[in-house]
Design goal:
Elongation Factor Tu (Ef-tu), domain 3; about 220 residues; 4 helices; single chain; about 40% strand
Length: about 220
């Protein structure tokens, strides 16, 4: 379990194919990622610990505290459901929530629900407005003043516009990003047109399940 409060920005430095044991590795196999972290970040990390990478919960398979690097194995299934884990580049990091930690964001499971696309990113006064188009299967879970995780970052939805089927369906929602968020996460490097990992609010998920059973 996580909170969506990013505790560090790391960098994927190498991506290697994992051999499934059935011949040579192929694109259908998983990947082993080597990730650099800020100095001291791994001081309280052990083998098997969970760390969210761009919002996707992963297990520490190996680490070198002195070198500030760790490795994770990502299955082909996870790669097909996420973005940002298949090549070198910066990533948001968050260690798993402890029972006595502050819940600074909202409850985040680290299970990516879908992929959104950045449709607008521009300065508005001292902040930045980020708009994202979400697919139809997630649109019903996104609500004004509700919570959503974007690449693992807990954020509040400021506006939601449902899109017509002719425009692809789904919805476009708006987020306000303050300078602190831009400086301490990878969202400061975002650009129009790129894909992002989305995780809907858990409360919305359970409400949908209850309503579908009651119908």
């Amino acid at each position: 379990m996580f909170t969506g409060i990013i505790s560090g920005v790391g960098r994927i430095t190498t991506v290697d194919l994992i051999n499934s044991g059935a011949g040579l590795p192929t694109s259908a196999d998983g990947r082993r990622l080597r990730i650099e972290t800020p100095a001291g970040y791994l001081g309280d990390v052990g083998l098997g610990d969970s760390i969210a990478i761009n919002g996707a919960c992963m297990t520490v398979a190996a680490f070198d505290e002195a070198a500030s690097v760790f490795e994770i194995d990502v299955s082909a299934e996870s790669l097909s459901k996420t973005v940002g884990l298949d090549g070198p580049g910066p990533v948001n990091l968050e260690k798993a929530l402890r029972a006595n930690d502050r819940l600074g964001g909202h409850l985040v499971s680290g299970h990516v629900d879908g992929i959104g696309t950045v449709s607008h990113f521009a300065a508005v006064g001292e902040s930045w407005e980020l708009r994202i188009r979400a697919p139809a299967e997630l649109a019903r879970f996104i609500a004004y003043k509700g919570s959503i995780a974007i690449n693992g970052v807990s954020l509040t939805v400021n506006r939601v516009v449902d899109l017509a089927p002719a425009d692809g369906g789904g919805c476009e929602f708006s987020i306000n990003l303050i300078p602190h968020t831009l400086a301490h996460t990878t969202l400061g490097q975002i650009e129009t047109g790129i894909a992002v990992n989305l995780e809907i609010d858990q409360i919305a998920r359970y409400v949908e399940r209850i309503n579908s059973r009651a119908a």
